[in-house]
Design a protein that fits this description.
With about 475 residues, the protein is α+β, with helices and mostly antiparallel strands. It has helices at about 15-30, 50-55, 90-105, 170-185, 215-230, 250-260, 310-320, 325-340, 380-385, 395-405, 455-475; strands at about 1-5, 35-45, 60-65, 70-85, 105-110, 120-125, 140-150, 155-165, 210-215, 235-245, 265-270, 275-280, 285-290, 295-305, 355, 360-370, 395, 415-420, 425-430, 435-440, 440-450. The protein has two domains: about 1-190, no CATH class; about 210-475, 4-Layer Sandwich (Anthranilate synthase), CATH 3.60.120.10. A hairpin with a 4-residue loop joins strand 3 and strand 4. The longest helix is centred in the C-terminal third of the chain and has 19 residues, at about 455-475.
Amino acid sequence: MTILPINPAANASPEALVAFLRQCREAARTDGRERLVSISLKVGALDPLAVLEAIFEPGELHFYAERPSIQTAIAGAEALLVHEASGPDRFGSVQRFIDDVLARTIAVGEVDAPFGGPHFFNAFTFLDEVTAGEAFPSARVFVPRWQVARAGEVTTAVANLLVAPDADLATLAERVWRAHEKFKHCDYARGNAAPTAAVPERAGPSTFQTTEVGDYRAAVTGGLAAIAEGAVNKIVLARALDMRAAAPLHPLHLLNGLRERFPGCYSFSVANGRGQSFIGASPERLVRVSKGVLETEALAGSARRGQGASEDAALGAALLASEKDRREHLHVLDSIRRRLEPLGLVLDFPAQPLLRKLANVQHLYTPVSAALPEGVSLLAALAQLHPTPAVGGTPREAAVGRIGALEGFSRGLYAGAIGWVNARGGGEFLVGIRSALIDGETARVYAGAGIVAGSDMEREFAETELKFHAMRDALRG
C-alpha cells in the first residue's frame, strides 16, 4: 500500500481532489490495473450504528461490529470489491485477495487515525463448504465504499473508490466530495440524526410463532454415544428455533437492543445483499492482532447468573469447581496450544481459568496472548483456530464431521468467524454465537452446548434455553 502525506478531501476545492485523482489514474495506466484509493478523515462524534441505520439498504452488503463497554465500533457498507472462496484453502484465498488489493492501494488522509485506512470485512461460515441456496457463502470478504468507526472519543470516516485507467475523474471527485461534506457536517452527537427509511413496526411477543428445528435431545443422545465409543472427546451441539413475526423484522433495530443489553459482548451484523442479515451479541473473541501481538481466549463451561450477589458468587464458585466444566474448558485451551504453537507462537496464559460474567450467563474464561512471528498473518492463525472446540469439539475433524447429521440443519454463519482485517495486518474476529439469521418476518435463532462424558441431557437443554434468552428478548423488544 502506498500512503501519501496529503489529504485531498481536506483541500480547498473539488478541483484539488480532481488533480489528486488524476495522479491515481496515471498510476493505474502504468500497468493497466485499477487502483483502490482510500481517503481517511477524522470527523465529529458519530454513532456508526446510527449512520448504518440511516442508509440501510437490504440489497447492499454491510458489516457492523461493536464492543460498547470499550467504546469501539466499526461499520462498512456498499461493497466496492468482493471476493468469495470455499474449501480448505478459503482463508488463504482471502489473504491472497487482500494482498493483491493492498499492492494497488493508494491511501491518503488521516490513515494513522484509529480505524484509518481501508478495511476488509470478512465472514467465514462454520464449515468450509456450504450447499447451494444457503444465505452466505463459505467465505466472503469485501471492501466497502464507505466506513465509519469509533474508538473512544475519535471517529474516523473512510471513503474508498476505484480509479481505473479510463476513469471519469469529475464523477469520482463529486462522489467523494459529497461523502466528505456529509460526514463533516453530520451531527448525530447533538441529537440531529439523519432521517431513516420507513420500516415496519416490530411485532409484539404475542404475534411470534416458534418452531423447533431438529430434535435436540436425540442429537445429544447421538453425541454421548460417539463419546462412549471413543470417536470424540467433546462435541458441541446446537439448537435452532424459527421465530415468525406478523411483520418484517429490522435487523439493525434488533441489534441496537442487543448492544444496549449486552455491552460486554460483540454486537454484530453481517448482511448478504439479498435481504438477509446475521446478527448477534457474541461473548467470544476468536482472535485479535494489534501491534504484532495476537490475543485469543478459551471460553467454555457455563452457568446462569444468580438473583443476588450471594447466589451469583455461589454459582460462579460451583462453576470453577465443576470437574465436568473444567474438563470441557481444558479441551478448548489444549486445542489452542496445539494449533498455534506449530506457527512459532509462544503462548502466555494464566494457570487457572477465570470467570467472565455476562448479563444472563457466566463462563469459564482463559485469556491467551503471544507475539506474532514475522511472516505469520492473522488469517493464518485464524485458519488454525477455527472452528475451536468451544463451538465444534475435539478431535476437531471427528467432531465437526458428525455435527450436521446430528443437528439436522445447516449452521451457516452460526459459530462462524466474523471480523475485519486492516491494511497493517491487524484486525479482530469474533465467534458468531448468541445469534440469529433475520429473513423478513422470520428469525432463526441458535444456541449450543458442549457435550462431554458425564453430560446430562436435561442440563444441556436448559443451558441452550438460557443462551436463547438474549435473542428472544431482543426480538420481543
